[in-house]
Design a protein that fits this description.
The two termini are about 20 Å apart. By secondary structure, the chain is an all-alpha fold. The longest helix is centred in the last third of the chain and has 39 residues. It is globular, with a radius of gyration of 21 Å. Helices cover about 85% and strands about 0% of the residues.
């Protein structure tokens, strides 16, 4: 109970500190490039009641959800396949790290040529942001499984899928979940970036359009909504992550 109270207190202190820093930045910069927290919240409350918001947020959530599912499935598959074969892992891990270090925006022209403008392109762009970190975390988690568990599976002559289901996944799930948490954030970033550069719907499109029209109220509101969504979900995932590590 004491830890929960401390966590809640620290969260409230962080929120208040961020709001004060935001207000201070607004007082320094002024209306030229910012809006105050109260102005942004007031505009956002009115904005979320419009059809424009619901049409675009539904589009973004649909694209993000599909991109996240693809990233999780492919990332877990790659991580487990490499984790079960040390030789392949030693050969492929440096390549995955090298791909992860490449700015993904440089790949966007290729994605547009392959998937064409629209939903498929932004789903693909979101997914490629999440696949590699999930794969790397899964690979590291599988490598960290105690050898005695793997020897037990081999003695029992478990097939690869049974080995993953009954031994590897339960033993590695805390570290895998950390990778999923990172993959969630990066997939969201990739999806919004995809909407900003080549889409006609979604919050990223609204943000890019607002930048072009110099609509500071819309810029601040969309940014605020994205930050609130990412922070809320990450808070839940972080709490689950800590509980899994504590139990492990």
């Amino acid at each position: 109970m004491g830890e929960r109270r401390r966590g809640l207190r620290n969260t409230l202190v962080l929120i208040i500190g961020l709001l004060l820093a935001w207000e201070l930045a607004y007082l320094v910069v002024g209306d030229v490039a910012l809006r105050s927290p109260w102005q942004t919240i007031r505009f956002t409350v009115a904005f979320v009641q419009t059809d424009l918001f619901w049409e675009n947020v539904t589009n973004t959530l649909g694209a993000f959800g599909l991109a996240l599912v693809i990233a999780v499935l492919l990332g877990l598959a790659i991580g487990f396949l490499l984790g079960l074969n040390r030789l392949s892992a030693d050969a492929m891990e440096p390549m995955l790290v090298a791909l992860y270090s490449i700015p993904k925006i440089t790949l966007y022209p290729i994605i547009l040529l392959a998937f064409v403008l629209g939903m498929s392109a932004k789903v693909a762009f979101g997914a490629i942001h999440g696949i590699i970190p999930i794969a790397l975390f899964t690979l590291g988690a599988v490598r960290g499984v105690r050898p005695i568990l793997l020897k037990t599976g081999r003695v029992l002559k478990l097939p690869p899928m049974a080995m993953v289901r009954t031994i590897l996944f339960p033993a590695a799930v805390p570290e895998i979940f950390t990778g999923l948490r990172v993959g969630f954030s990066l997939t969201l970033i990739g999806t919004v970036l995809g909407e900003m550069f080549a889409a006609q719907h979604g919050l990223g499109y609204l943000l890019m359009n607002a930048i072009g029209l110099y609509n500071i109220d819309m810029i601040m509101s969309v940014t605020f909504l994205l930050v609130m969504f990412a922070s809320a979900v990450n808070g839940v995932l972080l709490a689950m992550d800590r509980r899994l590590h504590f139990r492990a």
